[in-house]
Amino acid sequence: MKKLNNVISTILVIIAINLFNSRLYAEAIADSQSNRELLKRKNLHIYYTPFATTQYTEYPFRIRNENKTFSLLYGFNENFYLGFTYSRGESPKSKTQIDLNSSPMGFGLQDITKTRESEFFVLRSQYFFYGNFYGSANLGIEKGFKQEDKNFRSIQGFNTTIEPYSKTTTYSDRPFATIGLGYRKEVFGRVLVGIECEYGIMNSGRKNQHYTFNPQFYNGLPAKYIIEKFVITNESKPNSEFSYISIYAGIAI
Q1: How many domains does the chain have?
Q2: How confident is the model at residue 214 (pLDDT cuts 50, 70, 90)?
Q3: Which terminus of the chain, N or C, has less C-beta within 10 A?
Q4: Is the same domain home to 14 and 80?
Q5: Residue 232 — very low, low, confident or very high, per pLDDT cuts 50/70/90?
Q6: Residue range(s) defining the domain that contains residue 152
């Protein structure tokens, strides 16, 4: 009877140990799966770029003024993301500045107005090839804008003369394309921080200038018209290579 009791006790201990080990193994598997879920990259990445800088290889060339951008990308799997970047650009502005060609005395004023400038949209594709490092291929277009130079006032002594002269310059939309290398990390599971370096080519677009003036007032062609049309001929190069570096932060959902 004593031996039977010992056998039963041994069996019960073995069963208890197996149940305990099974429970620990199940918990370890659950913890491992939970950790994998936490480490898994989120599907939706939304980020904001407060700082960016651009360098061009050609001159003269119409420079894009870099402003804050908003980006949204969706992950079709853990590695491939597709989305867009948008920059609202600079708000329309107007100013008065000195014009050194307004009068025979070489001094005057003019008003300059601009519509929204440096607004652009980019289609982005990104592939994470090693940890948080990714490569990108991007296609974008920058919206054109218009600038008006008008209300030329020549100043001679205490006399001011408004000249019948104005110029309107229209800049067309222009496309660009880049490839890039970046690093983006999800901190605390939700916060995004990243940096990206891009290299690409940008088209200069078209520039149309329209002049309006009264030849009788100037006894022929205005001096500033002659200077701009025949003396200063800094036409932009048709294309320019450029580099773009951005630092950004956002959220992962």
Answers
A1: 2
A2: very high
A3: N
A4: no
A5: confident
A6: 42-252
